[in-house]
Amino acid sequence: MNLEITVIPAYRVSNQVTPEVRIYSDGEVKMVLTLQKEDKIINKFEYEINKGINKVFPSFKELSGRFDLIFEFFDKKRKLVYSSKKPYEVIDSSCRSTTLIDGCWVSVYHWSEDEARWFNKDLRRLTDEDWKEKIHDMNRVGIKGVIIQNLFYCNEYAGQHNMTVETYRGKAFYPSKIYPERFDIAAKDPVEAIFSAADECEMNVFLGVGLFAWFDFSEESLKWHKRITEELFEMYGHHKSLYGWYISEEMFGSLYYEYPYLKGSDYKNIVNFFEDYTSFVRKLTPTKPVALAPNNIRFHEFEKEWKEILVNVDILIPFAFARDPEYLNIKEISEICNACGTHFWVDMEMFAWPLDNGLVPKSTEELIKEIRMYDDVEQIYGYQYTGIMNSPDFKYELGGEKTRELYTGYYEYYRSVIEKNE
């Protein structure tokens, strides 16, 4: 029997949030979900699972701490046909947020030499073993989710290039057979290294499918993304830490209405992109989510257009809130996501603003203060771990002393939250 399970959020949730459990089955079965702590059964849930994709919503409201989620599937004769176990953490919280950094972006190499002036040189030096160490360092401070920012280096922009799938000019960060030209980095396959370490740490990885071109959701971009997704699935789909698909192109909250190179009505390209791409991905990985990170600026002013897009986006992760905290639109975005059945997470910019000295870390105090801006958001993902937060034990500077101070300071904060929760 073919079964696939995905829990959203992936590893950790506030007890004020009801997680979504997606199950794909090619037959009718009964599922028993047991919450177990060591040898003690905390709770049990039973569900009838139909053929196809199912969604169930177990409540963890009265719980806190770390558990095992044990999934057992039984056929009509009550015979056990499949079982799996997943570690999970429930934070006893007064808000929807876990008040922690639940995941982070990582860049194999940052797209902007100017912004990444303090760490791109070191990123280029990282070997496969170094990447494994970076993932273990993230796990040590409770950062359980990884979003690989992009898997190709290509600084083209929508409406400003003439590339096709055949004439694409990007360079791969991994050993692609479709586009064999490699970007010059020391690591032979940083993607495999990230996955293998994430498997060991029970972490979760979004593959950053991109970059075709920034903000580009054209027909050519769609074709490119489908080809690359197939290759990525063939190469890395066996990893248990493969969690979802992240579209790297990003987008403006105002869509193309303030973008001079395309018409406002071209937002329909984005609608068509996700309608087709998400349907395509469901055939490869039926329960794994598709995610997009636009900025938040004027997002709620385009409610009609975003609702057309978000019905085919599983997780929205907007950024740029802290750039203008007087005009937070978290409530408005949340209402739009709720209407579409889309999970609302946040892309918290861990770097100081404005960018007059490149990407440099916020202080620990500034970071913790910003975390509490997002009390009404389901998950907090930080942009970005690489170059902004760095273990004191790591051999490369990757941004200098301030990155080590942020790692140490955040670790102390993380431990304080977890110890209260245990």
UniProtKB/TrEMBL annotation:
InterPro entries, per database record: DUF4434, GH
Protein known as: DUF4434 domain-containing protein
Domain DUF4434: 101-396
Domain of life from the UniProt record: Bacteria
